[in-house]
Amino acid sequence: MQDNNIIKFLDLPDIIATEIISTEDRYIFIAEAKKNHIVCPQCGNITNKIHDTKWKILETSP
Q1: DSSP secondary structure string, 2-40?
Q2: Which DSSP state fits 48?
Q3: How many angstroms separate the CA atoms of 59 and 42, rounded?
Q4: Could you report how far apart the first and last alpha carbons of the chain are, in Å?
Q5: Among candidates 62, 36, 34, which has minimal Cα distance to 49?
Q6: Cα(38)–Cα(48) distance, rounded to whole angstroms?
Q7: How far is CA 15 from the centre of its chain?
Q8: pTM of the model as a whole
Q9: Are 44 and 30 in contact (CB under 8 A)?
Q10: What is the pLDDT of residues 3-42, one digit of tens each?
Q11: What domain of life is recorded for the organism (predicted)?
């Protein structure tokens, strides 16, 4: 998938691009984590009970 070639270029190996939207002045990447588990930031144990996700805005200069 071409979208994931862009993810490789951006050096983001732990995500999969699900959609790329192109507008006049920017590209919007919609992505998901490859992992279905996470390390708890409190205790360090591995869990598959992810209770929250969030959007992140990454900006670069041309």
Answers
A1: HHHHHHHHTT-TTEEEEEEEE-SS-EEEEEEES-S-EE-
A2: S
A3: 29
A4: 25
A5: 36
A6: 6
A7: 5
A8: 0.48
A9: no
A10: 556 666 667 777 777 888 888 888 887 877 777 777 877 8
A11: Bacteria
Residue 26's alpha-carbon distances to 8, 22, 36, 62, in angstroms, are 19, 6, 29, 10
Token representation of residue 40: 């708890």
Which tokens belong to 45? 């144990």
The answer to whether 14 and 35 have CB atoms below 8 angstroms apart is yes
Would you say 31 and 18 are in contact if contact means Cβ atoms under 8 Å apart? yes
- Residue 49 identity (one-letter amino acid): K
pLDDT at 36: 75
Checking DSSP bridges between strand 46-47 and strand 38-39, what pairing results, if any?
antiparallel
Q: Domain boundaries in the chain?
A: 2-47
